[in-house]
Amino acid sequence: MSELTFDYIVIGGGTAGALMANRLSADAQKRVLLIEAGTKDNYPWIHIPVGYLYCIGNPRTDWQFQTEPDAGLNGRTLRYPRGKTLGGCSSINGMIYMRGQSRDYDQWAALTSDDAWKWEHVLPAFKKHEDHFAGHSEMHGAGGEWRVEKQRLRWDILDAFAVAAQQAGIPHSSDFNGGNNEGVGYFQVNQKNGWRWNTAKAFLRPACSARKNLVQWTSSQATKLEFKREANGTQRCIGVTVARGQELVKVWANSEVVLCAGSIGSPHLLQLSGIGEPGLLRKHGIRVLVDLPGVGENLQDHLQIRTVYKIEGAKTLNRLTSSLWGKAKIGLEYVAWRSGPMSMAPSQLGVFTASSPDQIWPNIQFHVQPLSLEAFGEPLHEFPAFTASVCNLNPTSRGTVKLKSPDFKVAPAISPNYLATEMDRKVAADSIRVARNIVSQDALRRYSPLEWKPGIQFQTDDDLARLAGDIATTIFHPVGTTKMGDDKDRMAVLDSRMRVRGVEGLRVVDAGAMPTITSGNTNSPTLMMAERAAGWIRDAA
User: Distance between CA atoms of 115 and 532, rounded to whole angstroms?
Assistant: First the structure.
């Protein structure tokens, strides 16, 4: 077993890990190792925006996790995509640039007893790496690595939905990233000239290609964290064991190990390494190093209820892709102009609003799409339709991630526990009613929308919550499994600076560190967290 030593070891080359490797290796005196279990992001479909259809569920780019049977989904299991390639989930996600709402970060500040997480303090971190198409402003940055652009296509049916939402009392929004997301408008996306812009391109190429102090290992999976007991009795993380092909390699860190393996991978690796709930660890024959019962708890996700409406007289992707000529036309448009359906994010139009009058802030989000299918990765329906997927932005249900075996190759048990609370079931029912109200407006009448799912015959709260369980799927936003918290929170895995409690030299910097889920897509908030953590690590060096 060979051994190497670095100053910093970053585990996971995804959203947070790519930025972290960039920032830590900016100091030429520090040697940094970036470890990624997947391959380089050289699969062509990663870079074509519509390629998420061929990346999700593909073992080349996706961990291909499955959830456990879920009572809230009436016993169903779900595919649970997580990026397994350089760029991580930013290589297979929906490319939507979304920060969340100011209240999210003010809540984090309260839960961690650290004002560093307040909105006014995280906004500069968002702007630091941003390259916004409109240039520098009070709310946006320019010249950073993370490109944000307008989408490069439009659809009549989506324009009509936007007008219908306004007729239903929802204001127009040209930017969802100012602290209050309320409104209807087109999402801004992480693309550059019609190509997907993932974190590998943004933060690893070309910025780090000439840095001799940064070593990147792909097709290399961390199997166990290594520790030594300090004189004061605390555990210090001093390295990691890595599976590289058939060889196990031990690598050592002089300063810190930064775990960026994501909200599934990070708690799993902590548990494999002896950090977690003692009963679970002992059950699988793992020696308990640190008693942290919150590891793998507090799983939160946005469950999207895919309401589908059949329509007449409008172009949709269902019909465009139903013929060879339609597919050829789509391909030619992309080759010629980098526009059209091949340039589109999974969702183009967004709506943020309240599910009921008693909600003070927008608490539901729509992703509106000129297509319909059972779930991403499944074929499009043969009939013309649009989908108005709606999710509860602030679910109160909590799930778990728990190891099932001491063998690192065995995926953990993922139990999201969707729709487990009465509040979540009520929001689910109300959100379907909000969709129906929008679709009933005059702007959509000419397209004769007919509710195909869940079906207009279902009206009561109980019926709609049950039907939501039948048709809802994950929107791929798992967070919270290694949450930050203050000293009073026994279930907090991390302190407010993302350091693992009871351990020296180890941080978790990914979406798992979120104490509560942000009110929107979670990729860019994860980047912001990595930006903050990188600064704290540099300051401590």
Answer: 13
CA-CA-CA-CA dihedral for 315, 321, 324, 330, to nearest 10? 70
Reference 375, options 475, 300, 263; nearest CA is 475
Which one, of 34, 477, 117, 480, lies nearest residue 295 by Cα? 480
> Tokens 């079931």 map to which residue?
425
The one-letter amino acid code at 104 reads D
- At 319 the pLDDT is 73
**3-class DSSP string for 272-306:** HCCEECHHHHHHCCCCCCEECCCCCCCEECCEEEE
Catalytic residue among 268, 367, 381, 477: 477
Tokens of 476: 């791929």
Structure tokens at 193: 């000239």
Look up 477 and say whether it is catalytic.
yes
Tens of pLDDT, residue by residue over 107-147, are 999 999 999 999 999 999 999 999 999 999 999 999 999 99
Q: Identify the helix (H) or strand (E) that includes residue 265.
A: helix 262-272
* Orientation of helix 461-471 relative to helix 422-439, angle to 10°: 90
pLDDT in tens, 327-358: 667 777 777 768 777 788 889 999 999 999 99
Q: Assess contact for 481 and 417: CB atoms under 8 A.
A: no
